[in-house]
Design goal:
With 113 residues, the protein is α+β, with helices and mostly antiparallel strands. The protein contains two helices and six strands; from the N terminus they run ββββββαα. A six-stranded antiparallel sheet has the order 1-2-3-4-5-6, with no helix packed on it. It is globular, with a radius of gyration of 15 Å. The protein starts with 7 loop residues before the first strand and ends with a helix.
């Protein structure tokens, strides 16, 4: 993730489920921002959701989802974020969905070309 998430220094797997999927990941950014997200999965719908750890919600966090839908031309990727009121403007800028999706797309093409 640090290769495609702008400003991300490290992403540390804290816990995974019995299938090896991340349940909790701690993120550290170059700007000093540090938080953990908890992940849930709906495999039938190809959706992953995330939200702040329950004990970190009061500081202001981010929650969202990513969904992958088959299309005639390949795959449609839907990505959504919701910021808590406590998020600072600089933190919101790090999570700009357009910037993240563009960075992810560039990374995917670099790794496969």
């Amino acid at each position: 993730m640090p290769k495609w998430v702008p400003g991300l220094k490290t992403a540390t797997l804290v816990e995974k489920d019995s299938e090896g999927l991340p349940v909790e990941v701690r993120f550290a950014y170059v700007a000093g921002l540090d938080y953990a997200l908890v992940y849930t999965y709906d495999k039938a719908r190809r959706v992953v959701r995330w939200e702040p750890r329950p004990d970190e919600i009061e500081r202001g966090g981010v929650r969202g989802f990513a969904r992958f839908d088959e299309t005639a031309d390949g795959t449609r990727f839907t990505y959504a974020l919701e910021h808590d009121e406590g998020r600072k403007a600089a933190e919101r800028a790090l999570d700009d969905p357009n910037r993240l999706v563009e960075a992810f797309s560039r990374w995917m093409h670099e790794e496969r070309d």
